[in-house]
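In the design runs reported in the main text, the only information available to the sequence generator was the tokenized backbone. The following block is the verbatim input for one such run; it is reproduced so that readers can re-run the procedure and compare outputs position by position.
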């Protein structure tokens, strides 16, 4: 049987793949290793930086392969674009938005007032969620990821650099089943809760949510894993990264922290653009907010705030009363949009349920205070 001709795009990708493999041929790698060993013995380079040149070469080749197979252009510069063509594209987008019922144009977060302010998360958005420790940013991010995977029906990738996947799963199951997390931890479920647990497991069986609990990931490693998942599962609805401060910087040497964070965020912004998917990245606040009388977070409370403010499309701060009494099970939380490139800033109210580590829409929907 004759083999059918490959499409031109496949031929192009295959030819470049072969060319790249030839560039990383064994003899070339051996030559690099021998050169590095020679310099190391002569005292010109030392310790962990000895193989950084080789590592950088292999990373560049890997990035080139990712670009080819993700369909990304080898030349990221578009040059000048004619205004009349851009206007036509804009009108098409307006018409597409007009055809969508309701106010949510992007991907729904599951929180009505937040969606009203953002019109949904857009493909390519880099969204930063920050709070003081213990306020619930991981819980909120998990609630959003669960909604997109379970209710919207799009695959979601969660990179949990801080919390074990088993703990995240307990929260998701507890949220769906309304079973107290303490009962799930201890296994002391009531007769009423066991059937609810079985129902929740059945509901979540086809939930397209994927958790990676690898510690010490770099931005490039995270990007490669996300690209792989997108190839396997199709268009991703959201990527969650918990959290920014735990992403490793792999370039070696001493790098200014602001520049390091800026480089990590640029890599994540590029990933969001390549996969046409919003990325929600969690970030710790400095201790400045906790020392003020008014503990509401501000942009200045962000660690490395210059880099974060510059790269993020949306910056959100989560705040609630962290001195709940022993008998209190719910409280009102505030989610403040402090920066939004394409929309208003303001604050929305959420209800926090402590026994489930879960955020919900408040009973009243009149909670948007646009600025």
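Verbatim output:
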């Amino acid at each position: 049987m004759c083999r059918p001709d490959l499409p031109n795009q496949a031929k192009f990708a295959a030819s470049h793949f072969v060319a790249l493999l030839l560039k990383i041929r064994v003899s070339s790698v051996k030559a690099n290793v021998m050169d590095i060993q020679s310099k190391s013995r002569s005292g010109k380079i030392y310790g962990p930086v000895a193989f950084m040149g080789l590592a950088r070469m292999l990373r560049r080749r890997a990035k080139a392969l990712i670009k080819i197979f993700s369909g990304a252009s080898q030349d990221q510069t578009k040059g000048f674009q004619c205004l009349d063509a851009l206007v036509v594209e804009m009108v098409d987008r307006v018409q597409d938005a007009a055809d969508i019922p309701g106010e949510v144009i992007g991907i729904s977060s599951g929180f009505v007032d937040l969606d009203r302010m953002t019109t949904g998360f857009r493909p390519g958005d880099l969204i930063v969620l920050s709070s003081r420790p213990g306020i619930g940013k991981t819980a909120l991010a998990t609630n959003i990821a669960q909604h997109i995977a379970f209710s919207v029906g799009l695959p979601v990738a969660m990179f949990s650099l801080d919390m074990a996947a088993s703990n995240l799963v307990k929260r998701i199951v507890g949220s769906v089943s309304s079973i107290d997390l303490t009962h799930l931890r201890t296994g002391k479920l009531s007769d009423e809760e066991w059937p609810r647990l079985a129902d929740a497991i059945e509901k979540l069986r086809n939930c397209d949510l994927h958790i990676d609990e690898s510690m010490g990931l770099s931005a490039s490693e995270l990007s490669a894993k996300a690209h792989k998942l997108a190839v396997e599962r199709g268009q991703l609805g959201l990527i969650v990264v918990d959290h920014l401060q735990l992403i490793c910087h792999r370039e070696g040497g001493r790098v200014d922290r602001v520049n390091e964070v800026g480089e990590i965020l640029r890599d994540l912004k590029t990933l969001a653009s390549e996969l046409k998917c919003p990325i929600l990245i969690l970030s710790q606040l400095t201790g400045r907010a906790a020392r003020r009388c008014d503990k509401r977070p501000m942009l200045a409370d962000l660690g490395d705030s210059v880099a974060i403010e510059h790269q993020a499309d949306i910056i959100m701060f989560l705040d609630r009363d962290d001195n709940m009494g022993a008998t209190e099970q719910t409280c009102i939380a505030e989610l403040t949009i402090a920066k939004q490139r394409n929309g208003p800033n303001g604050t929305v109210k959420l209800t926090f349920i402590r026994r489930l580590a879960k955020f919900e829409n408040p009973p009243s929907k009149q909670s948007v205070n646009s600025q």
